[in-house]
Amino acid sequence: MDKYVVFGNPIAQSKSPFIHTLFARQTSQKMEYTAELAPADGFKSAADNFFSAGGRGCNITAPFKEDAYQYATQLSERAKLAGAVNTLKKLDDGGILGDNTDGEGLVQDLLLNQVELAGKRILLVGAGGAARGVILPLLAQNPAELVITNRTLSKAQQLAELFASFGSVSSAAIDTLNQPNFDVIINSTSAGLSGQLPGLPESLIKHDMVCYDMVYSAQITAFNLWARDLGAGKVVDGLGMLVGQAAESFMLWRGLRPGAKQVLRELRRMLQ
Ligand code: ATR
Fold first, then answer.
1. Active site (annotated) includes residue 80
2. Could you tell me the residue range of the domain that residue 259 belongs to?
3. CA–CA gap between residue 72 and residue 263 (Å, rounded)
4. How far, CA to CA in Å, does 190 sit from each of 150, 167, 180?
5. Are residues 66 and 121 in the same domain?
6. Which residue has the least CA distance to atom 3 on ligand 1?
7. Which of 158, 188, 253, 266 could be joined to 131 by an S-S link, Cβ 3.0–4.6 Å?
């Protein structure tokens, strides 16, 4: 049976085995997908062991996405630009392809939620690894503009420069954003993990807009609660992005696109 695994540290919280097992059932693929805790400094030997035992592919979660980037012998363009790899695939010639499906997962989930991106003005909040991973797929949707803002402005400026040749992308200081000019605001910061808000002006929120929080939780996230209370038309959390990135990895490994909706419903029920 073809073997797949997700590596992380910690890993007990990972929903990936659940998601991929449902995908495999849905598409009648004979495969096994498990979770494995790799030691903090031991990604390389864990991956070596897995692939030399015949493993076909793996997902990589924190803190190993940069180790996986180094491990790959070939990189997709989106992985190169993300500077991080969340999916590895053993190639027929013995090489290891590194890809990053996080951004496509976000885009697919936005589209599933009927959120138009083409021609729209998007604000991306945060300039860490999570932000960097989604910029190229967002620009590929041809938004009118993608503005990156961050508590530390210089990091937003660096990201805007890095992606300048791929579309209309710029940076702006948080305190200069006081007009409700955006159709979609995407929160990629880790502020919510400690119950904090990223510090956006309230005046950005309007009724005909969408706010997307890349994190998720059983209850509404801090950012989405803030946006909803200020009257945002729609708020969406990142559970669908998790399913979307998994679907894209599955597609890379198996050549089949599984359906996200049913899996997302089951996952949401499990979270409650
Ligand atoms: P990740 O890989 O999840 O993106 P990261 O690289 O540590 O993690 O980046 C975290 C992001 O969340 C950064 O943009 C960070 O802002 P700074 O660059 O100014 O540090 C942002 N962030 C974290 N906590 C925040 C908070 N309380 N308010 C605003 N932004 C916050």
1. no
2. 2-100+243-271
3. 29
4. 11, 26, 23
5. no
6. 130
7. 188
Q: Confirm whether residue 80 is marked as ligand binding.
A: no
Q: Is 238 within any annotated ligand binding site?
A: yes
Name which residue sits closest to atom 12 of ligand 1, judged by CA: 189
Give, using CA atoms, the residue closest to atom 7 of ligand 1. Answer: 128
Cα(54) to centroid of ligand 1, in Å? 38
Confirm or deny that 152 is annotated as ligand binding. yes
Clarify whether residues 153 and 264 are in a common domain. Answer: no
Return the ligand 1 atom nearest residue 155 CA.
18
The ligand 1 atom at the shortest distance from the C-alpha of residue 132 is: 4
Around ligand 1, the residues with Cβ closer than 6 Å are 126-131, 150-152, 155, 188-191, 196, 198-199
> Per-residue pLDDT for the chain (272 aa), expressed as one digit of tens each?
999 999 999 999 999 999 999 999 999 999 999 999 999 999 999 999 999 999 999 999 999 999 999 999 999 999 999 999 999 999 999 999 999 999 999 999 999 999 999 999 999 999 999 999 999 999 999 999 999 999 999 999 999 999 999 999 999 999 999 888 999 999 999 999 888 999 999 999 999 999 999 999 999 999 999 999 999 999 999 999 999 999 999 999 999 999 999 999 999 999 88
Residue 144 sits in the same domain as residue 259: no
Distance of alpha carbon 228 from alpha carbon 130, whole angstroms = 23
CA atoms in the 13 A half-sphere facing the CB of 106: 28
Which amino acid is it at 109? D
Q: What is the CATH number of the domain that holds 42?
A: 3.40.50.10860
Is the interface score ipTM higher than 0.90? yes
A 10 A CB-CB count for 61 gives 18
Q: Is 230 exposed, middle or buried (0-12, 13-18, 19+ CB in 10 A)?
A: middle
